[in-house]
Design a protein that fits this description.
It is built from 15 helices and 15 strands. By secondary structure, it is α/β, with parallel strands linked by helices. It has a seven-stranded mixed sheet, with no helix packed on it. It has a four-stranded parallel sheet with strand order 5-6-7-8.
């Protein structure tokens, strides 16, 4: 794949010979004009005015919206395979962190790498995800933990979006861990995050949302709220790493601030679920981290379902606890480990994932007026997208109105 979007051919024209996932038994058609969806429906109902447009033959492929990976930590230095071995030998997540590993080890490697090096390391990871049908990706900071290095991560995230023609949403996660130079001074560090780092990065246009890791080994409820207040003052939406290792009450706090999403949520309480329901906050499920950490405490899927809380699914790609490079594999894991149905899992990487990024009006669906982001799959039925793992059934990808994969489709 060439990382230059302008080299990808335009997707404008009439896409036929396809089966829309919403009604796979009927031949469908999509009209793309000036990079946006103009019309979608059954081929037999195509308005005559579109019949003469440039044809694109889908060869009977199944079509879904472009996939949305709504929680990643894609830009970082180094890797942490040694910690994987430590956990296999019996060390817990918290023990690894206390031994100098975990997030802080990635901070060291990220600080040592310059911007071009971080871009070169992140680009192959992004290419893997794009090859799986991803058209939108969130990329968090959080491995710099200083203004200079958080800026570096966010700048690389923006560069990746521009180079690959993929929608990138950047999330400032300065409150990810306590940097070594602030050991024992978490209050001082949160003041730095709120009063210096966040305002500066927001002024530079590098921040789309703000996140916090609210947990015993990270930041308290009060510190989390301090960051949320700073984000609100700047007009930025918030998200939260919530209830992953324990019930801190973070989800209810995030919901009070109208959070886009609460992510992980293995230990989410009934009160947290109700708060999320009222606020419309999305629950982001991260089966890759659950699997890698060999967790046994399942997220409260049945209760979320009963409450009508939308559930998204994401890779949580990061070097320590979810080195996942396939969103389709996460779809399979969400079904097998968390017992989501196939429709729930596919909604989790399209419409609900888009909502978790505040992009529900432009992404996660195939509808007139939306930018053209859709995937043609070499499968007969939608269940195959959850059923197979280790296979890449992509036939073609239309991303930002251009044919990014499968140029002869």
């Amino acid at each position: 794949m060439k990382p230059v979007i302008n080299e990808f051919p335009s997707a404008d024209g009439l896409w036929s010979g396809i089966r829309l996932a919403t009604d796979a038994k009927v031949e469908g058609a999509i009209v793309v004009a000036q990079g946006a969806i103009r019309w979608v429906g059954a081929r037999s109902a195509l308005p005559a005015e579109f019949a003469g447009l440039k044809p694109h033959d889908g060869g009977g492929a199944l079509v879904t919206p472009g996939l949305v990976d709504c929680h990643t930590h894609l830009v970082y230095g180094g890797q942490r395979a040694n910690e994987f071995a430590m956990r296999l030998a019996g060390a817990t997540y918290e023990e690894v962190a206390k031994a100098g590993g975990g997030i802080v080890s990635s901070v060291r490697a990220t600080r040592e790498a310059d911007e071009d090096t971080l871009f070169a390391q992140a680009a192959p990871r992004l290419e893997q995800l794009l090859a799986d049908g991803v058209c939108v990706i969130e990329i968090k900071s959080g491995y710099g933990l200083s203004l200079e290095h958080e800026r570096k991560q966010l700048r690389v995230a923006r560069r990746l979006g521009e180079a690959y023609g993929v929608t990138v949403r950047t999330t400032f996660l300065g409150a990810h861990a306590l940097p070594p130079e602030y050991a024992g001074r978490s209050g001082d560090y949160i003041d730095l995050v709120c009063n210096e780092m966040l305002p500066a990065l927001a002024a530079e246009g590098l921040v789309d949302a703000v996140d916090v890791f609210c947990e015993r080994i990270a930041f308290s409820l009060a510190e989390t709220e301090q960051v949320f207040k700073a984000a609100k003052a700047l007009g930025l939406p918030v998200k939260l790493h919530a209830e992953q290792l324990s019930d801190m009450g973070g989800a209810a706090l995030a919901a009070r601030y109208g959070a886009l999403s609460c992510d992980h949520i293995e230990h989410l309480s009934a009160e947290g679920i109700e708060a999320m329901r009222r606020s419309g906050t999305v629950a982001v499920l991260l089966p890759g981290a659950y699997y890698t950490l060999r967790d046994t405490h399942l997220p409260p899927i049945a209760a979320l379902r009963a409450a009508g809380v939308p559930m998204a699914v994401s890779t949580d790609h990061n070097p320590g606890t979810s080195p996942a490079l396939s969103l389709l594999l996460m779809v399979n894991m969400a079904c097998t480990l968390f017992r989501l149905t196939v429709p729930e899992a596919l909604d989790g990487v399209t419409v609900h994932a888009a909502r978790a990024l505040g992009l529900q009006d432009t992404h996660g669906a195939i509808a007139p007026g939306m930018p053209a982001n859709f995937v043609l799959w070499n499968v007969r039925e939608a269940a195959e997208l959850a059923y197979w793992f280790g296979q890449q059934p992509v036939r073609a990808v239309v991303r930002q109105g251009r044919i990014a994969i499968g140029g002869n489709a």
